[in-house]
Specification:
Elements: H1 12-16, H2 22-29, E1 42-47, H3 59-72, E2 76-81, H4 87-90, H5 97-117, E3 121-126, H6 131-142, E4 146-150, H7 163-174, H8 180-189, H9 202-213, H10 228-247, H11 251-254, H12 257-269, H13 275-287, H14 293-300, H15 317-322, H16 327-335, H17 351-355, E5 381-386, E6 389-396, E7 404-412, H18 415-423, E8 431-435, H19 450-458, E9 466-469, E10 480-486, E11 503-507, E12 512-515, H20 519-528, H21 539-547
Helix pairs in contact: 3-10, 5-6, 6-9, 6-13, 7-8, 7-19, 9-12, 9-13, 12-13, 12-14, 18-19
Length: about 575
């Protein structure tokens, strides 16, 4: 791409220049600025560092590397913090209500700091699940030159264990398959150090999707957290953002409709998390790009699942890294006409140019299948419609548990009761578990159901029990699981009307989610239904519930706002 004429201080000059901004400069001298710094491109480095979770405990060092990169390119870096919460720690507790909320808080906080301080460019570094979409939503809203850096994946624990191994071990312990001592051994050895959860769970899925979007450097998604390559990635990102400022390349030049299609293709080929649907819808909304649930169906019909990665498959992200990461896969997809190669990226080059010299996977590897021999010939992310989900639901169906399920409803108004019923043996083969009032508004916060889905797998019921919810799933969930049911129960969706014993069918082939109850009976039930009292009446959960959109629209909080003058 030809260089553009761009003001390298388009935003910072407003804050720094002239007599009237003398107080601004005085404040900044106290934090180390000198006369030369005021004339440089100002780059904000958003760090999600925290010792709260392994996903983020090393990100301070990556921020330091990004600082070096910005300085080396002649810019002036400033590091600032934003929050993270740990899905793995809060999973199955009331605290999980804050997980999806944190995505919005992260986006809002980065937008707030960058907008207030007049940064000309941005490096955003994220580790845990909601960091990635939160950073990207802010980048899209601000539309200033930016690069996203993924914190990197964790290394496998003992016996190739990871966090999902721990959750599934709880279920195995409940059915007597492992002892107390064995469970403690899993607990002590599954998480060896820094980095995000090690399968193709939500963090690695979103990192891969962002690389496919063109908003991170090549292979940023396929690096271990504790590695020289990850530190270099952060340093190169600092250099890259200064160059993007000089060239005048903004996120709106990169985040096109075609770029989002690329992200969907790569997510499917990698057997990525259902959360990618929710997050890509939200990022597209922030970027002003029209993206809908049905786009996942349209694209998914021609894109196969190729990567044999956890949770449905055998391998970890670290093992994929050792054979080349996602770049050889992307080159294969490009060669098959499944990617838009002319999409611009943060390298200043197109996707096709970035992939030109990428070598294929080594012969004999079994992690990524060839196009001619896919794990599944079309997407594992299946958008379902029917009288139980008029606005859609998202299922993760690998095909290993089958493509259809029919059974009797067992209804729970919340996650905790569901988990207890699984562990104590109340749930049996043939049950379709309905977990409701867990949607964006009703939860609020749309909790992930890893605890119950992992318990189902641990109990040996993965192909015998289905779970349907207006909540969401961890990237570690697998089995017959259907989430994001819209409209949600708290909004009066049909999920609120289901009763114990109702017959329910899930059909991935027909993309149908059906409650076998007559319209007349449902009408009678609706007349008797009353909405539940809100979980929170003040604070962040309350105003999130008041503003959040349907999951089918990305569960964002700034859609359809009624503003004066409109």
């Amino acid at each position: 791409m030809a260089k553009r004429k761009a003001d390298p201080r388009a935003y910072s000059s407003v804050v720094f220049d002239g007599v009237k901004q003398t107080p601004s400069r005085a404040m900044l001298r106290a934090v180390g600025f000198d006369d030369r710094d005021f004339r440089r491109t100002q780059v904000g480095i958003a760090s999600t560092w925290s010792t709260l979770t392994p996903c983020n405990m090393h990100i301070d060092k990556l921020a330091d590397a990004a600082v070096r990169g910005v300085q080396g390119a002649g810019g002036r870096p400033t590091v600032f913090g934003t929050i993270t919460v740990s899905d793995g720690i809060s999973m199955g507790t009331p605290g999980m209500r804050y997980s999806l909320v944190s995505r919005e808080v992260i986006a809002d906080s980065i937008e707030t700091v960058v907008g207030a301080q007049g940064f000309d460019g941005l490096v955003a570094i994220g580790g845990c699940d909601k960091n990635m979409p939160g950073c990207m939503m802010a980048i899209a809203r601000l539309n200033r030159p930016a690069v996203f850096v993924y914190g990197g994946t964790i290394r496998p624990g003992a016996e190739r264990r990871d966090i999902v191994s721990v959750f599934e071990a709880v279920g195995a312990h409940a059915r007597g398959a492992i002892t107390d001592r064995q469970l403690r051994d899993v607990e002590r050895t599954a998480i060896p150090g820094p980095g995000s959860c090690g399968g193709m769970y939500t963090a690695n899925t979103m990192a891969s999707a962002i690389e496919a979007l063109g908003m991170s450097l090549a292979n940023s998604s396929a690096q271990e957290a504790v590695s020289r390559t990850k530190r270099l990635d952060a340093e190169h990102a600092g250099k890259a953002v200064v160059e993007l400022v000089r060239k005048g390349i903004k996120p709106s030049d990169i985040l096109t409709r075609e770029a989002f299609e690329n992200a969907i293709v790569v997510t499917i080929a990698l057997a990525g998390s259902t959360n990618a649907v929710l997050h890509l819808l939200a990022i597209a909304h922030a970027a002003g790009i029209k993206l809908e649930l049905d786009d996942f169906t349209r694209i998914g019909a021609k894109v196969p699942v190729l990567a044999d990665l956890r949770p449905s498959g055998k391998y970890s992200m670290s093992e994929l890294i050792r054979i080349g990461g996602i770049q050889p896969l992307m080159k294969t997809l490009l060669g098959a006409g499944l990617l838009h190669g002319d999409c611009l990226t943060v390298t200043g080059k197109t996707l096709a140019q970035n992939l030109k010299r990428v070598k294929p996977y080594p012969a004999g590897q079994s992690i990524v299948r060839p196009l001619a021999d896919p794990i599944k010939p079309e997407s594992h992310l299946v958008v379902l419609y029917g009288n139980l989900a008029p606005e859609g639901a998202v299922a993760k169906i690998s095909g290993k548990e089958g493509l259809a399920f029919e059974g009797r409803a067992r209804v729970f108004d919340g996650e905790e009761a569901t988990l207890q019923a699984i562990l104590d043996g109340t749930v049996v083969a043939g049950d379709v578990l309905i977990v409701r009032y867990e949607g964006p508004r009703g939860g609020p916060g749309m909790r992930e159901m890893l605890s119950p889905t992992a318990a189902i797998m641990g109990k040996g019921l993965g192909d015998k029990v289905a779970l349907i919810t207006d909540g969401r799933f961890s990237g570690g969930s697998h089995g017959f699981v259907v989430g994001h049911v819209s409209p949600e129960a708290a909004a009066g969706g049909p999920l609120a009307l289901v009763r114990d014993g109702d017959r329910i069918g899930i059909d991935a082939t027909q993309r149908a989610l059906t409650l076998y109850v007559s319209d007349a009976e449902l009408a009678r039930r609706r007349k008797a239904w009353t909405p539940p009292a809100p979980y929170a009446t003040q604070g962040v959960l309350a105003h999130y519930a008041a503003l959040v959109s349907s999951a089918s629209l990305g569960a964002v909080t700034d859609r359809g706002l009624k503003l004066s003058g409109q």
